[in-house]
Every structure is written in C-alpha cells, then in structure tokens.
Amino acid sequence: MSITVGLIAKKVAVALLSDKRTWKVIGSSVVVISLILLAPVMILMSLFGGVGNAITLDSNQIISGLPTEYQTQIVQVDVALVAITKEISKQQVDVNPIKAHIIYTYVLMGYEQGNQSFYQEYVSCFLDSKNDNVLFDNIQSKFKIKILDNERTQIIEYYNKIVTKKQEESS
Fold first, then answer.
1. What confidence tens digit (pLDDT) does each residue in 108-137 have?
2. Domain map of the chain by residue range?
3. Is the pTM of this model over 0.70?
C-alpha cells in the first residue's frame, strides 16, 4: 500500500511541477513571503539611510534654494542676532544672549531698520531689569510697543525650553 501511495504522490508531483501555472504560484508565494519578511528591514534602512550613515544637512544649501527675499530676511536676522550679542558683550550686561535673541525675534524684528542706535537701546533695556516683567516694560517704553501678557508668557516659556534643552545636551 505504501508503494501505491508513493507512486500516486510521485505522479501528482510530476503533474504539478510540469505545469507552468504551478511554478507561477510557487514563485509568487516565495516573493510574497520574502517581501513580508524583508519589508520592515527595508523600511527601517530607508528611514535611517542604512547602517552607520548619518543624514547631514548643509544650511547654506537649504538657504540657497529659497527665494531671494527669504534669503535676504535670513541674512538680516542673522546680522541682527550677531549685533545683539556683540552689544551685550560691549555693555557687559548679565543676560543670556539667547533670551535677547528670542525677545528680538518675537517682538522687535525689523525695528532696527533706520535706527542707528537700536542695538544699544535694546540691550540697555536689560540693564535695570530685575525680572522679566520689568524687562518687558522697559522694551515697551523704549520702543513704544505693546507686549501682551500671553506673548510674555510664550517668550519666557520658549526661552526656558531652549535653555533646558541646551543644559540636557551638555550633560
């Protein structure tokens, strides 16, 4: 009986393997199973650029791809932030330049245009500031602007997040 079962199995195998449709089914099954097993690995490698490769971005390449007016604004802001940092050192003000940069970008960006003494006036607002509210009041008075309470809160929260992140990175 085992010989007849063996012969029947052999005939069935020969019949199936000689049919092109069977090979298509086998091939498709192998491809599908391979994709199921390899897809997660391929996705992870594409996300992380392979093993050991880091994605590096050149900010100059990014900026050069922007429209000219945006490039000009970025350069102007960069010049302003450098000028603020220099003025802080010049006046020997005890303030974190990051705080001065954040306040400038939130409420004073563009005020330096046509004002020769802007950076001196701005940094002088930090001199007599015992706390953040006094600082914001000094800026409002000096530049005749209104800084709402919610804006003050946002600025200080953003500043605190940046300082905390920098401290975590350095430790």
1. 988 888 888 999 999 999 997 889 999 999
2. 2-48, 59-166
3. no
Question: Who contacts 80 (Cβ-Cβ below 8 Å, separation ≥6)?
Answer: 104, 109, 112, 119
Nearest alpha carbon to residue 108 among 90, 71, 81: 81
Question: Of 139, 83, 82, whose CA–CA distance to 106 is shortest?
Answer: 139
Alpha carbon distance 162, 158 (integer Å):
6
Count Cβ atoms within 10 A of the Cβ of residue 123 and give its class: 0-12 exposed, 13-18 middle, 19 or more buried: buried
H or E stretch including 133? helix 132-143
CA torsion 126-127-128-129 (nearest 10°) is 30
The residues, any chain, with a CB within 8 Å of residue 127's CB and separated by 6 or more, are: 91, 93
Q: Can you tell me which residue has the tokens 């932030």?
A: 81
